[in-house]
Amino acid sequence: MITLHHSPNTRAASIVWLLEELGIPYEIHDVDWRRPDGTGARDPANPHPHGKVPALSDDGETVFESSAIAIYLTDRYRTVPMGPLPGQATRGAYLSWLAYRPGVMEPALISRRFEIKHVPGAMGWAPADEVEAVLNAHLATRDYFLGDTFSAVDIMLGGGLNFMMMSKMVAETPVLKAYAARITDRAAFRKMMGG
Ligand SMILES: N[C@@H](CCC(=O)N[C@@H](CS)C(=O)NCC(=O)O)C(=O)O
């Protein structure tokens, strides 16, 4: 049985959305975590090495980092194909955009939010305005990150983008607004939101 170490209103929501899209059984294990307002604490019942959420346990294996969890689940569970397998078309794009969320998009936009200066060449991510331009240009010519097909990238990266747009960390453009409406008009998204 899959156990998702989780807390409401965190990045763990993306994994709930993905599990709902896959339609596989899972248990939610709510844990405490260190919140930005200084409340909460690492929970010894959470197997994540930094006490972060999400973390996932499955068949005695622990997976942490949202993108790694997404790859693990979409490779292993094919009830509904939610991402290309090795050797299939768009696998490279799939891995690239999954890595882009924690490696580029989040650090760029969160740094800008906290007014941390971007040092070109030294930081592993790109300036926030450049990230916004890349995302807008990519989504201007396709419905989903991988083209015509909704995939786990639209949950992990697209869901994060939607959240950042709602939090005013990303400028709302007609392209991003239409994309966000497209990816959130889904039963699994509504279930994750508690509807
Ligand atoms: N890179 C991680 C980030 C996970 C993360 O930072 N989660 C937050 C909640 S949204 C957390 O658990 N923070 C607690 C802490 O930093 O100790 C991922 O993508 O899964």
Could you explain how this protein is built, in words?
The protein is globular. It has helices spanning 12-22, 66-76, 91-113, 128-140, 152-166, 174-184, 187-192; strands at residues 2-6, 26-30, 55-58, 61-64. The protein has a four-stranded mixed β-sheet, with helices on one face. The model has no long low-confidence stretch (mean pLDDT 97). The longest helix is centred in the middle third of the chain and has 23 residues, at 91-113. With 195 residues, it is an alpha+beta fold. It folds into two domains: 2-76, 3-Layer(aba) Sandwich (Glutaredoxin), CATH 3.40.30; 91-186, Glutathione S-transferase Yfyf (Class Pi), Chain A, domain 2, CATH 1.20.1050.10.
How are the elements arranged and paired?
Layout: E1 2-6, H1 12-22, E2 26-30, E3 55-58, E4 61-64, H2 66-76, H3 91-113, H4 128-140, H5 152-166, H6 174-184, H7 187-192
Parallel strand pairs: 1-2
Antiparallel strand pairs: 1-3, 3-4
Helix pairs in contact: 1-2, 1-5, 2-3, 3-5, 5-6
This protein binds glutathione.
Glutathione (GSH) is lined by residues 10-11, 33-34, 50-54, 65-66, 102.
Descriptive terms for the model:
Glutathione S-transferase Yfyf (Class Pi), Chain A, domain 2; Glutaredoxin; single chain; 7 helices; 195 residues; binds glutathione; 4-stranded mixed β-sheet; alpha+beta
Quickly give the CATH architecture of the largest domain. Up-down Bundle
Secondary-structure class = alpha+beta
CATH class label of the largest domain: Mainly Alpha
Unreliable spans are none
Number of helices: 7
- Summarize the main sheet: 4 strands, mixed
> CATH topology of the largest domain, which one?
Glutathione S-transferase Yfyf (Class Pi), Chain A, domain 2
Domain count: the total is 2
Rg over CA atoms, rounded to whole Å, is: 17 Å
Enumerate the distinct ligands. Answer: glutathione
Task: Report the strand count.
Answer: 4
Order of helices and strands: EHEEEHHHHHH
Amino-to-carboxy terminus distance: 24 Å
Instruction: Identify the strand order in the major beta sheet.
Output: 2-1-3-4
